[in-house]
Amino acid sequence: MHFEFFPSRTLTIYLARLFITRIVAVLFMLVLVLQMLDLLGESGKILAYPGNGQAQLLTYVSLRIPQLIARFLPYSVLLATIITLATLNQNSEVISMKAAGLSAHQILAPLIAAALAIAGVSFLFNERVVTRATSALNAWSAVDYGAIPRSAGGRTNVYLAEGRDILLAGAVSGTGTAMVMEQVTYYRRDEDGMIVEQLRAPYATYAHPGWRLEEPTRFDAQAVTSNQPASAIVAQGISPERVAISGVDADAQGLLELSASIDALKVAGRRTSELEAAWWHKISGPLSAALMPLLGAVAAFGLARSGQLLIRAVIGMALGFAYFVLDNAALAVGNFGGYPPFIAAWAPFLLFALIGETVLVRTEE
């Protein structure tokens, strides 16, 4: 009996390489198919803007692919786990390894180690690539795929209300007094809350105080007239600091930036449970890849000739997809305040880790 956690060096490298190549293959196929379907749905909107063509379609693809990789990498690890273990079982390689004295945990150890390495790469990829791509794509889609905003690192779809003023911006870039809004719409209300004036402008700058709309189109709801002044200053009660803490997109910010946004919102007395859950999920999400070999392990064991290999593979797949369903449900409940942020992000991971370990021990150890 071998008491080391890993099998021999040769077997460890063999299993890890087999596992990683299948992850890459499955992920490539998933991203390729999903990107084609997504592009079919968005190409009409992109090409609807005058002047857009093939270059803009390629830009969209380059910004969308990182999001698809980040979202479907855990699914790819799950499917690769089922394929790898079922193939090893079908070829009687699992039986040979168990006959050599390896336990179920030792057989899975190279796969879990490889999955942990992939989880680390996924975390860095999300922090350095996915957040920037998400921020840029959100800013671009907020202006209907027109001219790409000068700073794609800002916020999108910002809504602000102060007294009788309502200010909406498709994209916001810059910080402090250098902040610039694009695709701006301003509404002024009367004492009864009815909109009496609307102004639309391509962009706005901070006017110390208020926001200067350049070449706005003004519509007077009472006189039912419209005109186009050279400029107009509106929403003097809304400061750049107020804009900075509005419309925080957790997917477009890394851990450090999101931490700063959460602290700023707490100082302003805003609710932050949704963002805190997203902060924790930035860690638990990539780490879920390391959970997939444990959930799919049921496909590795049992005699292939018994006719239950397909059933075991289906059970492993069902466990994996049940984790993803519960993970999304827990985050949704956490966003409504039903769970604390830490529990919402980590409870599904810990629960299914125990379930996978229990199934493995009870059936194979």
TrEMBL record:
Membrane topology annotation: Multi-pass membrane protein
Compartmental location: Cell membrane
Regions crossing the membrane: 12-37, 68-86, 107-125, 309-326, 338-361
Entry keyword annotation includes DNA damage: no
Pfam families named among the record's database cross-references: LptF_LptG (PF03739)
InterPro entries in UniProt: LptG (IPR030923), LptG/LptF_permease (IPR005495)
Keyword Cell membrane: yes
Keywords, alphabetical: Cell membrane, Membrane, Transmembrane, Transmembrane helix
NCBIfam families per the UniProt record, alphabetical: LptG_lptG
Protein name listed in UniProt: LPS export ABC transporter permease LptG
Organismal lineage: Bacteria, Pseudomonadati, Pseudomonadota, Alphaproteobacteria, Sphingomonadales
Gene: lptG
